[in-house]
Amino acid sequence: MTPPSARSTLRESQLLGQTVLLIGGSAGIGLETARRARSEGANLVLVGRDPDRLERAAADVDAGSTAAFDATDSARLDSFFTELPEPVHHVLVTAGTNYYARLADLDFTRARGLIEDHLLLPLRVARASVGKVEPTGTLLFMGASDQRPGVGSVLPGAISAALPVLIANLALELAPVRVNLIAAGFVDTSLSARLLGDDLDQRRHELRATLPIRRVVGPEDVAALAVHLMTNTAVTGATYDVDGGQRLT
After folding, report:
1. pTM attached to this predicted model
2. Whole-angstrom Cα distance, residue 52 to residue 136?
3. Which domains does the chain have, with CATH numbers?
């Protein structure tokens, strides 16, 4: 008989036997979520643009399969979902970056790319996933938590405000598949390092001093929330801020 103290430490893996598809899964939040999901027993499918980086990520997390392509290529995205050999249980989309510019300096080519990454890509993934995600499964998308007006934030702010509405409507259209949004603040990833360059350490210092949690949010924090939303079958159409309280300061 298992002693009570031993029984209390035993826990069934939350994603055992389930398949998690990560679009943007070769780095940052996507890769960290892949690690977390794998530790919970999930089978992994990784999608990324860079074949070499994708291969390294797949080896890191023991992914079952990979596909290297640009997720904003709608034809390739559709064919990828069509060719999936069997339904998946959960999809997380972390592809895309951000773009801040004053109105006078706005590059409309980059602006269209931002809209493609953050508004059109979720719509395309949602439509392509119909019949390819188990009815008990989840679609998870990434957004930004800060919607406050600011110089240079006209486009990111508008997209951040629009995404929760888009997600809520998708949750109704795709039910019983659950659809949720993770709205992140600053997350200490390699992408953040590339965007901030020499200002990265200063930004970390500012956040440690001002955030209510007194530390910088890391990809593991977002990954923990992502796996929770995959396993909590009572949550859909919701937006979850994971920013260390940044929106409050």
Report:
1. 0.89
2. 33
3. 18-65+86-243 (3.40.50.720)
